[in-house]
Amino acid sequence: MKIKQFLQLMNFYARFSPSYTKIGYFSRSVLWGPRKRDDFTGQVWLVTGANAGIGRSIMETAASNGARVIAVARSEEKLRDAIASLPPQVAGKVEPAIADMSLKSETHALVDKLAGAGITLDVIVNNVGVMLGSLTLTKEGLETSFATNLLSHYILTEGCLSAGLVNQGATIINMASGGLYKWPLMLDGLNIDDPALYNGKMAYGCAKRAQITLTNHWNLHHKDCDIRCYTMHPGWTRTPGVDSALPGLVRYQGKILRTPAQGADTAIWLCANRPPIAEGGEDVLWFDRKARSAHMFDATRSSRNSEAEVISYLQSMASK
């Protein structure tokens, strides 16, 4: 590694590690005080990417606190193993739902299955996500991280809302990450299918940035039903996905990366407390139980496309 790159790396870790690792979590949690047990009895939660990492932690916590959880994952074997590892009284509250969220067809089928079973939801956690180093297309011809990290979230949630499967007073969580801080809202970063133009971190970050657009859109159109949507940042959390996509981060920061439960904390807190949605103003990213600016750099405040253009694009891509 060149000296300049090393110094840049050290500057990066010195700037962000105190906030996004366990260090930041523990320093802020001191101010939260003891947490009472949340009661989700009678609620129905749907959690995507539930077989591992943050999704698995949300699944377990919700079920432990009384919720019926529909756990969604691509791998039936991994999902059933995850459920089987839970205490029996918790596992009994979890129902597996197998769907590849990179595929429009399987995401639509999941919505249809919920509708056919007459299931209505109190919480949707759009947690599933991937970061890829090279261009990969789904068998439907879409760039995989766009399809998984954004389009599936739109199809699933919009489908449930349109079909009347989301209860009044429900909560929707979009799981983002710090990957969005570098990129403005722009269509050019979504669904890149040209290998010469593809940048995995950009594709990931642009999809995560666009999640805030979904949050704003759903809050605007469903506030009369008291449906509240939040985009949140889990901090730097050690998950199988991070191990695979960011080995350098794990190599240098592994011992202080957050646990999945710590990464999931704000999602659980948001569902239990449902803080008011601020209208207008700057885009918000919830992190460690607080609404914070979604912009770390001034350059991302100027969107290259409007929220309406992004929503229109997702609508055009979401058809069966």
Features:
320 residues; Rossmann fold; 8-stranded mixed beta sheet; 12 helices
Structure annotation, total helices: 12
Structural class by SSE content: alpha/beta
The general outline is: globular
Q: Which fold does the CATH topology refer to?
A: Rossmann fold
Instruction: Please trace the helix and strand order, writing H or E for each element.
Output: HHEHEHHEHEHEHEHHHEEH
Distance between the termini: 47 Å
CATH architecture: 3-Layer(aba) Sandwich
Rg, rounded, reads 19 Å
CATH class category label: Alpha Beta
The largest sheet is:
8 strands, mixed
In round numbers, the mean pLDDT is 95
E-strand count: 8
* DSSP strand content: 5-15%
The percent of residues in helical segments reads 40-55%
Query: What name goes with the CATH superfamily?
Result: NAD(P)-binding Rossmann-like Domain
Which consecutive residue ranges, at least 5 long each, have pLDDT under 50? none
* Number of domain modules: 1
